[in-house]
């Protein structure tokens, strides 16, 4: 017996599908969070424009209302495009997962 020396433990790595998929899932998670942040910021900007438009009074209401409404409409279009892109990320992940499952069978 060798009590003075310790031998390193040999740990067998588990290369299951879950452990190999984790980095990919983490990358997707980070991208989804980034996209959600961009959408949240765009929605906040749109809401600020709506508040500005709704608080107009007098002559400014006649002159700036149309301009602000155009900016709100453009911001709504931008938000919709961002949401389509976000759902595209989720859909591509789902398709990749479904394809890999059917290929393994």
Kindly describe this structure:
81% of the residues lie in helices and 0% in strands. The chain contains two helices and no strands. The longest helix has 47 residues, at 58-104. It is rod-shaped, with a radius of gyration of 26 Å. The two termini are 49 Å apart.
Assign a percent range to the helix content: over 70%
Task: List the helices and strands in order.
Answer: HH
Number of strands: 0
Cα distance spanning the termini = 49 Å
User: Which strand-content bin applies to the residues?
Assistant: under 5%
Any low-confidence stretches, pLDDT <50, length ≥5? 101-105
Q: Helix count, per DSSP?
A: 2
- Overall average pLDDT: 81
Q: So what's the overall shape?
A: rod-shaped
Quick one: biggest sheet? none
Nearest-angstrom radius of gyration?
Answer: 26 Å
Content-based structural category:
mainly alpha
């Amino acid at each position: 017996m060798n009590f003075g020396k310790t031998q390193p433990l040999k740990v067998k790595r588990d290369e299951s599908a879950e452990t190999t998929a984790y980095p990919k899932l983490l990358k997707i998670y980070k991208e989804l969070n980034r996209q959600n942040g961009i959408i949240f910021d765009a929605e906040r900007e749109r809401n600020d424009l709506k508040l500005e438009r709704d608080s107009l009074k007098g002559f400014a209401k006649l002159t700036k209302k149309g301009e602000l409404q155009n900016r709100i409409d453009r911001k709504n279009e931008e938000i919709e495009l961002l949401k389509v892109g976000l759902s595209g990320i989720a859909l591509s992940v789902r398709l990749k997962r479904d394809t890999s499952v059917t290929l393994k069978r």
